[in-house]
Amino acid sequence: MDIYQWNVAQIGSEPTGTAKYEHALSQNHSDIDGIEVHQIRRHAEGFMSTMPISWLLQYRCHNADLVHATFQTVAPAAFVHRPENFVVTIHDLAPLVYPSEVRDISLRLQWQLTPRALKLSDKIIAISNYTKQEIQRLTDISGSKIEVIHQGIDHSHYRPLEQQKARDRLGLSHQDTFVLVVSSSLEHKRMEEAKPILEAVREKHPDVKLLKAGYGEELTGEHVVNTGWIDEDDMPALYSAADVYLHPSEYEGFGLPVLEAMACGTPVVARDVASIPEIVGDCFDLVSPDAHPEEFADAIFSNLDVDLPYRDAVERSRHFSWDKTARETADVYRSLLD
């Protein structure tokens, strides 16, 4: 099988969740007999880096047996270059649910065309059962066309590290108790709740500090530590340095940081919404979808007594791997080509 994967990640881009997915698919498919994978990625900067121009000039079929658009907004390229067999991965449809988040003109164009472009696909891969439900709710695409294949994780990289050594690596205090949040500042991430949750926690545990990582806006406050962007090599140390991982988001297509925290043995406090229950299983008691800061604080209190690393979380995380993701994706390819 000659497979061309149309990637959304730019050449040399930071390893976000989508970039990790695209890299893992390519790497793991290279180990599967009978699959020859070619990655097409956008330029890093300039005119050629924009998505609409990439649709026209970058994403081509090259006589591929099958083309896989590994992110939903790449799909409109099929209007210009129609693959013989076409698979699209949908990570989430948040811009259709939260249109106010889409302020960039290019993104608006992408999300105007993407729902129509999805109808050109032969198969759609949803990264969670929740995402499949959202596709069916927000488009008229039949469920029979959609395959659910969860994202994975590299367990050789994301694994428990000794907490004090992890803190030394990041220059963090040994004495403080850290609640970690890794998030952007998009509306559905609900980051405005992080500080009220911290205040509720500190009423009973004044030694707790909030550790904020990610590419969103910094949080201000005396008891907030902003790490900024953390290199991928240091992410396991970041999760291992924390006592609890807080995930206040109300909408997720998957929730890779939750899985990464679990793989490092860090207890998770999150809402019982979207795809999160699929990841955590019965490993944690999730808070209600409309939880107030005090309910989050109570959940954090209960997890501060957990022995670290939390082995139940590590074991649950082993249900997910990039090898499994790649093998199930290869099965989708074969279903169209055999």
TrEMBL record:
CDD domains: GT4_MtfB-like (cd03809)
Keyword Transferase in record: yes
Keywords: Transferase
One Pfam family this sequence matches: Glycos_transf_1
Superkingdom of this protein's organism: Archaea
Keyword DNA-binding among record annotations: no
InterPro entries the record matches: Glyco_trans_1, Glyco_trans_4-like_N
SUPFAM superfamilies for the chain: UDP-Glycosyltransferase/glycogen phosphorylase
One MF annotation (Gene Ontology) recorded for this entry: glycosyltransferase activity
Record domain Glycosyl transferase family: where: 163-305
Descriptive protein name: Group 1 glycosyl transferase
Organism: Halorubrum hochstenium ATCC 700873
